[in-house]
Amino acid sequence: MFSLFLAAASLTPAFNDASYADLAHVNRTAGECIARFGTGSIEIRQAFNEADRTMINVAVVTGKPTRALPVGAKIWAKSSYGPAWRAVVIESTPQRLRFVAHNRFVGDLFTEDSLTIALHESVDAGDAVLVDVGSDTSGFREKLASAFDCSDGLGI
């Protein structure tokens, strides 16, 4: 039944995505593998859920939103191309929003021309909160690749 609901929705959820519970366990200390884009950034980190004994690689995305969302909100992150990925808001003000999503979400950004990400509150939501991740998008693919290379080098 749930899959029928998703099939009829406007967003296609990503296959083999992380759970909201796992995403909420992100290590919130500053990481070493960061791609900076002027006003925003994308960091590759880990989330370790001790209760379930799971560890996943995640991306912490920071940018300027069109409006704030509540901290802890369970949302869907979507680039122009690709599926929607589960995400959790970890910081939110009218000027800055940070959310965590599975690190494979960042792979969808390699096909983008800009670093604006749509955040939906549900898979069938019409209006999205847009998050502008970068004012300086020159060479952003290389910066993303460097963050991934850094995380591989650290075993993330």
Question: Which labels suit this protein?
Answer:
six-stranded antiparallel barrel, 8 strands, alpha+beta, single chain, 156 residues, 4 helices
Fold and architecture overview:
Helix content is 21%, strand content 33%. The protein has 4 helices and 8 strands, in the order ααββββββαββα. It is globular and about 35 Å long.
Helix content: 10-25%
Shape: globular
Oligomer: single chain
Question: Could you give the order of strands across the largest sheet?
Answer: 3-6-5-4-7-8
Tell me the Rg in angstroms: 15 Å
Overall mean pLDDT score? 85
How far apart the termini lie comes to: 36 Å
Major sheet description:
6 strands, antiparallel, barrel
- Determine the structural class based on helices, strands and strand pairing: alpha+beta
| Order of SSEs | HHEEEEEEHEEH
Low-confidence residue ranges: 1-9
Number of helices: 4
